[in-house]
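Ticket #4471: structure output looks truncated?

Reporter: J.K.
Steps to reproduce: submitted the chain below (146 residues) through the standard prediction queue, then opened the result file.
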Amino acid sequence: MNGGTNVILMFEKLKLKLAKRHDAKRITHLFWSIDHGIRKKEVEDWIDDREVFVLKDKKRIKGAFSFMTLGILGLFGLMYVRKLAVDKKERGHGLGSLLLSKIKSLSLKMGATAFFLFSLEKAIQFYQKNKLNGLGRLFWWRKEDK
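Returned output as attached by the reporter:
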């Protein structure tokens, strides 16, 4: 098998799921890698509010994102992506791009007309590569951009 086939097989085993309370420690660790100000209590609150999804295989969480919705979903609803992180050992294999595609799908299912996020300086090229609209560190995607 070549490397591309391995990546496809790996992706097939990954599932996007709502985070559970017992995932909080691992998610906090992931988010801490991009934001040293994050605290477990904050992550637990987001999990309780059903605002955290994880990308996981049977063994462990590979990536996660947290979001909140603004406005009236279905009319003028926006999804704000607070945090998006991939395990450091898993970076560079397309998991961040996979998470972005899952965020797009989820935002549409929820009735959001767009989602937006603020990027770390070092991640700007990643969001540009994934064809999000951008201005400085602000990036967004609208359902018209399909």
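Triage note (M.O.): checked the attachment and the full token line is present. The radius of gyration is 15 Å.
Status: closed, working as intended.
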